[in-house]
Design a protein that fits this description.
- The protein is mainly β.
- It has a single domain, classed as Virus Head Decoration Protein, Chain: A (Beta Barrel).
- The chain is built from no helices and 14 strands.
- The strands form three sheets. Strands 1, 2, 4, 5, 6, 8, 9, 10, 12 and 13 form a ten-stranded antiparallel sheet that branches. The chain has a two-stranded antiparallel ribbon with strand order 3-7. Strands 11-14 form a two-stranded antiparallel sheet.
- Strand 4 and strand 5 form a beta hairpin.
- It is globular and about 40 Å long.
Length: 148
């Protein structure tokens, strides 16, 4: 498994002109563009993590560039943020076109491989690479799988 790195968070943006859907949420903790988030019990965005609870492993989308503060790439707890819940997000690097990307063991990060069923972690696909810089956000519906 290889974590996806984001070398320049200022370049992460939803391609609304290509059909991306961005919803406004309040950050439940500090988050950065390019990180995967879930919703907590208050419907606030918290970093998604596959080796936490089922709720935290339900990544709903990727933090992007707006609609509130497009000049920032890092957002403090309580900030209004944009989360792409469907569609293309560009600004990544070294992606493999056609490959699915999953929640990582690192909170908020993406990984190139799903965890093994025996890993005691949740499996959650977040999206797939359209090209070397763009992920099409398409969280698999339903509960996160695995983790006994």
């Amino acid at each position: 498994m290889t974590a996806v790195t984001v070398s320049d968070r200022t370049t992460i943006r939803a391609q609304i002109e290509k059909g991306a859907l961005v919803y406004p949420y309040t950050a439940a903790e500090d988050v950065d563009r390019g990180e995967v988030v879930s919703l907590d019990s208050s419907a606030e965005a918290t970093l998604a993590d596959r080796n936490s609870t089922a709720a935290v492993a339900r990544g709903i989308g990727i933090v992007v560039d707006g609609p509130f503060d497009q000049s920032s790439y890092t957002y403090a707890d309580g900030a209004r943020i944009g989360v792409c819940v469907f569609g293309p997000v560009t600004g990544f690097s070294s992606l493999t076109p056609g490959m699915w990307y999953y929640l990582s063991q690192t909170a908020g990060a993406l990984d190139t491989a799903a965890p093994a069923e025996s890993s005691n972690e949740y499996k959650r696909a977040v999206g797939y690479a359209l090209d070397t810089t763009t992920i099409f956000v398409l969280p698999i519906p339903g509960d996160a799988e695995y983790k006994s």
